[in-house]
Design a protein that fits this description.
The protein contains two helices and eight strands, in the order ββαβαβββββ. The chain is mainly beta and 163 residues long.
C-alpha cells in the first residue's frame, strides 16, 4: 500500500506511517481489501501460551527466583504464563484511579496468595467471595518497606470448569 503513503517504516513489532488527507480514503479501502483477502478467523483468535499448571507448592518466592533466572523477558523470550486452577476467591477489592484493576486474595488448597489483575475489574464483576476460578497468571515478587512478597499478576480469568 506504499502508493497511498507519504512515508513509512518500522520493524516486526512497530510500524510508523504518514498518509496525506487526500489519500486517506484510498488507503482505507486498500487496507480493508487486504484484510478481507489475507486475514482469516484463525488469525484473529486470541490464544495464550502457557508453560505449566501451578500447584500450591509452586506459589513461593523460591520458585519465582528460579523463573527470574530466565530473564530478560521480552520479544523472543516472553514472560512465562501459568495456569492456576481451582483457586477460591477469599477477598476482592477494586483499585486504581479509574477503578479498572482488581486485587484478589486467592486460596489454593492450603496456600493464600495475593494477586492483581490490571484492567480486569469489568471481567471480575461476575466473581465474588468464595467463587472458584481458573486463571492465567504471571509470577511477581513485590518489594515494599523492606519486605519481599510473592504475588501473582492475573492475565486472564474464568469460572473454574472442574471443581
Amino acid at each position: 500500500m506504499s502508493e497511498h503513503l507519504t512515508k513509512f517504516g518500522g520493524h516486526k513489532q512497530a510500524a510508523g506511517l504518514t498518509v496525506s488527507i487526500d489519500k486517506l480514503n484510498d488507503f482505507h479501502r486498500a487496507l480493508i481489501e487486504y484484510t478481507e483477502t489475507h486475514i482469516t478467523e484463525a488469525d484473529l483468535e486470541n490464544t495464550l501460551e502457557l508453560e505449566a499448571e501451578l500447584t500450591p507448592e509452586d506459589l513461593t518466592l523460591d520458585v519465582f527466583d528460579v523463573i527470574a533466572e530466565l530473564e530478560p523477558f521480552g520479544f523472543g523470550n516472553p514472560k512465562p504464563k501459568f495456569l492456576l486452577k481451582n483457586a477460591v476467591i477469599q477477598s476482592k477489592r477494586l483499585v486504581g484511579k479509574d477503578v479498572k484493576h482488581v486485587q484478589l486474595a486467592l486460596q489454593v488448597k492450603n496456600v493464600l496468595v495475593e494477586s492483581i489483575g490490571f484492567n480486569l475489574a469489568k471481567i471480575c464483576e461476575k466473581f465474588g467471595t468464595n467463587d472458584t476460578i481458573d486463571a492465567v497468571v504471571e509470577m511477581l515478587a513485590d518489594s515494599w518497606n523492606g519486605q519481599r512478597k510473592f504475588k501473582l499478576r492475573i492475565v486472564d480469568i474464568r469460572a473454574s470448569i472442574d471443581m
